[in-house]
Automatic annotation (TrEMBL):
Residues 112-193 form the Beta-ketoacyl-[acyl-carrier-protein] synthase III N-terminal domain. This is 3-oxoacyl-ACP synthase. PANTHER family: 3-OXOACYL-[ACYL-CARRIER-PROTEIN] SYNTHASE 3, BETA-KETOACYL-[ACYL-CARRIER-PROTEIN] SYNTHASE III. NCBIfam families: PRK06840.1. Residues 251-338 form the Beta-ketoacyl-[acyl-carrier-protein] synthase III C-terminal domain. It holds the Pfam family ACP_syn_III_C. The lineage of its organism: Bacteria, Bacillati, Bacillota, Clostridia, Eubacteriales. It comes from Proteinivorax hydrogeniformans.
Length: 343
């Protein structure tokens, strides 16, 4: 059997609390109606942190434990943990992957954090695969992390409607060298540095530290720094880059694009989701629109895959593409062939 890396399984942690479309509309103070939040933004409800245990690192750890439970993998067999969880976490300058390593009992692993905003899971899976193929000492890896950037959203900011969907949760995916099934094939990633500071949290870094005067504003300061430029630049390059990532991932995988059977895609507005599905020649049944989950950042692709498996949308022989985009700006796609690996 040709050397490969396969997906053993996934794990999720989703908080118990939800914010409804009605509550989102109320938070906008009249800018958006409940109907518009549902129909245009595509949000029925979204999970939000429920308690003190719903920190970014802790949610990642809970998802990691669930992945181990779902797959039966011994944590002592994990050689590498790549944390794709967000930088907004319980304690700055702590390494989330190392914390999760301890919590899941992966005593033999080493851990590292990577960051590419909402593209991080797809990028981390590529990194994990490439490392496993190159390093004889790495046979089993976990890509894992949590997300709760929605804490920073100011619902009265007119330019921020694209981020009203930000939710909370954790996800994990376990990869194994020469697993014999569910092969992660090739990936393609693009980044555009002209958009590197088009969006972000304005206060709390070295440029604009939090002070007693700005503390209240700082707590809700995720915003677009260059809204007009960002809109114009994304209109110019975003869909083109996304399609290029998909085309390149399939070409490098040696798989025809028309074999795509399931699209694991992040949550964005409903009209764009339909456009993407139609553009790729798929039906709505070949993807899952995350209207009851919102946008859990880079957890979305893991969430979509697990939901698809549970609903029977992914079976042996299904070709999957995980696609993602992240502020900064990044675009990514991979190809996965579910089921036994051909000899």
């Amino acid at each position: 059997m040709e050397k490969h890396v396969g997906i053993v399984g996934t794990g999720l942690y989703i908080p118990e609390n939800f914010m409804t479309a009605k509550e989102i509309a109320e938070a906008t103070k009249g800018m958006w109606t409940e109907e518009a939040v549902k129909e245009k933004l595509g949000i029925n409800k979204k999970p939000i942190p429920a308690n003190e245990g719903d920190g970014t690192q802790e949610m990642g750890a809970k998802a990691g434990k669930k992945a181990l439970e779902n797959t039966g993998v011994d944590p002592m067999d994990i050689d590498l943990i790549i944390c794709m969880g967000e930088e907004w976490k319980e304690y700055p300058l702590t390494t989330s992957g190392i914390y999760i390593q301890e919590q899941v009992g992966a005593k033999n692993a080493w851990a590292i954090d990577v960051q590419q905003r909402c593209c991080t899971t797809v990028a981390a899976m590529k990194i994990a695969k490439d490392m496993m193929m190159a390093d004889d000492d790495i046979n089993t890896a976990m890509v894992v992390g949590g997300y709760r950037n929605g804490d920073f959203v100011d619902y009265t900011d007119k330019s921020m409607s694209m981020m009203f969907n930000l939710s909370a949760g954790g996800g994990a995916i376990i990869l194994k060298k020469n697993y014999g099934k569910n092969a992660l094939l090739s990936s393609h990633i693009m980044t555009d540095g002209s958009l590197a500071r088009s969006a972000g949290v304005e206060y709390g870094g070295t440029e604009k530290p939090i002070t007693s005067e700005n503390a209240e504003e700082a707590s809700k300061s995720l915003r677009l720094f260059q809204p007009q430029f960002m809109k114009e630049r994304l209109n110019e390059v975003s869909m083109k880059n996304w399609i290029n990532c998909i085309d390149q991932a399939f070409a490098k995988s040696g798989v025809k694009k028309d074999e795509l059977g399931y699209l694991a895609v992040l949550h964005f507005k409903q009209s764009m989701h339909k456009y993407m599905v139609d553009l790729l020649g798929l039906t709505e049944e070949q993807s899952i629109y995350l209207s009851d989950y919102g946008h859990m950042g880079q957890v979305d692709q893991i969430l979509s895959l697990e939901l698809a498996l549970n609903e029977g949308k992914v079976k042996d022989g299904t070709v999957i593409s995980m696609i993602a985009a992240g502020i900064g700006y990044a675009w990514a796609a991979n190809v996965i062939k579910w089921g036994p690996v051909d000899n």
